[in-house]
Amino acid sequence: MSRLSRFTLSALALNISYCLTAQAAANADAAPVLTHVEVIGSAVKLRAAPGSGAIVDAEALDRMRPSSINEVLRSVPGVVMRDEEGFGLRPNIGIRGLNPTRSTKVLLLEDGLPAAYAPYGDNASYYHAPIDRYERVEVLKGVGMLRFGPQTIGGVINYITPEPTQEQSGFIALTTGNRGYANAHARLNGAGALFDLVHKQGDGARDTLELLQTDLNFKYSGTLADDQAITARLNYLREDSQVGYSGLTEAELRNFGPDYGFDQNANFDIERFGGSLTHEWYFSEATTLSTNVYAFRFDRDWWRQSSTSTDTQCGTAFRDARLRGERVNFDGCNSAQGRLRLYKTYGIEPRLSTQWQGLGANSELELGLRIHDESQERRQLNANTARGRDGMRVENNRRTTRAYSGFISNTFDFGALAVVPVVRVESIEFGRLNRLTNRAGEESLTTFIPGLGINYQSSEHLAFFGGAHRGFAPPRAEDIIDNNGGSVDLDAEDSRNMELGLRGDASGLTYEVALFRNHFLRQISVGSIAGGNTPLAEGETLYQGAELMIGLNKQDWFGLNTGQSYLNVALTLLPTARQESPLRAVIGGAPLVGSGAGKRLPYAPKTALTVRVGQHFNARWDASIEGVYVGQQFGDFANRTDADASGQFGLIKAYAIANATVNYTPLDSAWSGFFTVKNIFDRRYIIDRTRGIQIAPPRQVQLGLRLEY
Asked: What are the pLDDT digits (tens) for 560-581?
């Protein structure tokens, strides 16, 4: 799409917006109600949605007392989490069978705005804000994803921060635990402003893995006039962790156990500054224009001496010793590589929502535009000492992404039946400059992404939904332009996604069942997602399965004075996650080793189940037990069941863990407390083989106190 075409599209959409809002402004008399960009919004709105979704609310978060986002999202059907370091600082989120590595196939939002530092040019999660910052989490799948983007395949996860209040309130919460865990959380709310401070630290999943994170968040909401509201957000996150990249070899795990640590000189240091401003203009009760402006800066320095279990950065002798299962001392390795990254992201996104009547239906029209700009400064410095933090520059790249996007969605309400057509347009320009050779290149792509959803309310307590839409995920800037500035014959990821389901409630029971089918005409497999140094590849794949969510709340079972009992179930069945054709390298066309039609895709378990059962009694105590089961997974495209010496190939066995939480909230008291045990039976199991064997965290015991003021 040319610049003139993009300008014409933007001008047309803005003209439509102006005409609709100008007509509604003539009788504007609605006072503003402070909101944010809604992905789902509420349980009532979810009931009428044309696709599947889930809301993990504040009550559920209090019951589970999570210390990472992993513990929250595994309670949602269709979502499989893979821990990496024990704190969820670099989440690996997979939805409906998609590879979870770095959450690249998931769209992450905060208050409806982009949370990732480069969702268009490099959608990988190398940081995550603490779960303590949020009061609820929404997960949306299906055709409704097209209202956002650019990722429209797996799902949208929206983290929602608390709303500021006029009344003054706040709390201080302290948590301690084994493995050096400490968490301090303070919040002050009042006069339309909210301050939130979280600091956490502790030992990770194994030795020589020390984690430290501090997060400061500010939010202000107020009115500019009777019909206008504004919300401002500022946040700062800092992490300074001792964390490496490589996993264990088979011999290291066998000889030294799951806690073995070797990369004591690794350091992961990040700073993230972010800010956004939302202006809402209420022209009438039927029409609202919301304009969002956002900007982020993400600075990451990662120094390490090994990136995989077969890395020869420290020489072949080090590698061979590790493969034999001998202890190595990285202080004796005269090398340290710094992978230094600086991302800057800016964007503006107006959204118009208006209600109108026509074509025999009450309708709600929503349209939005976005101009989004990203830049990546990527450097690699090679030091010649174990703890060096400067050295020879071997990479100096600038990568840029400019995106123009828009969507139009209309809900035609015919009474019991709602029909929702939606179309999204993404036009993206990529650029890459190799400053070492002064070679540069540019590429662009434009894609139309249509979808259609339905919702049929057969009664007040039962609704059927379904939809079909095109799935889209842009390639990374580094994948579509090579290091010499040349164009790579690579298009965007392209799928056809369908789902059909029902949701309802009756006598304390809520449920949702969904069948889904995601057929990729072209799925892109980036390097380092499965089994060794996987080259950039693409191929045809198919995912089919079912999801079940159950929530049950009963008061005084069988007439006994037992208080409130509850049960929550999240079940994912994925019988099909197969390669429909061999995945072939984009450059050269050679099939990946072992890849072939009919073979199962890696990191796609057939079954995932999370069950929580609990009891709330005496208006003070709440106790619950959670069980988590994840079925076996292949660690590579060849579906190898035998493990090789590197630990990067082989079967990942099924695992099950149990967790327990007890909350105590005295009546008429400002303080409360909790006690939780995660991984009660101290199960140590393999969760990842991508860069060598990664082991799940050991048992964690935590005790917390909270004082309201």
From this structure: 677 889 999 999 999 999 999 9
Q: How far apart are CA 285 and CA 31, in angstroms?
A: 9
Q: Determine phi and psi for 331, rounding to 5 degrees.
A: -65, -25
Q: Which fold has domain 3-708?
A: Maltoporin; Chain A (2.40.170)
The CB density around residue 664, as the number of other CB atoms within 10 Å, is 16
| Long-range contacts at 257-261 (CB < 8 A, ≥ 24 apart) | 258/206, 258/684, 258/695, 258/698, 259/206, 259/207, 259/698, 260/206, 260/207, 261/206, 261/207, 261/208, 261/209
Encoded amino acid at 490, one letter: L
C-alpha closest to that of 117 among 297, 270, 271: 297
DSSP one-letter code for 343: E
Query: Could you give the 3-state DSSP secondary structure of residue 73?
Result: helix
Q: What is the pTM of this model?
A: 0.93
The alpha carbon dihedral of 285, 287, 293, 298 has a sign of positive
349, 370 contact by CB (below 8 A): yes
d(CA 591, CA 290): 48
Report the amino acid identity of residue 489.
D
For residue 149, pLDDT over 60 is answered with yes
**Among candidates 708, 694, 543, 560, which has minimal Cα distance to 204?**
694
Going by C-alpha positions, the residue among 344, 458, 454 that lies closest to residue 402 is: 344
Domain boundaries, the chain: 3-708
Task: Judge whether 357 and 336 are in contact, CB under 8 Å.
Answer: no
Listing DSSP states for 538-572 in one string gives EEEEEEEEEEEEEEEEEESGGG----EEEEEEEEE
d(CA 492, CA 495): 10
Residue 196 has pLDDT above 80, yes or no: yes
Residue corresponding to tokens 């076996």: 632
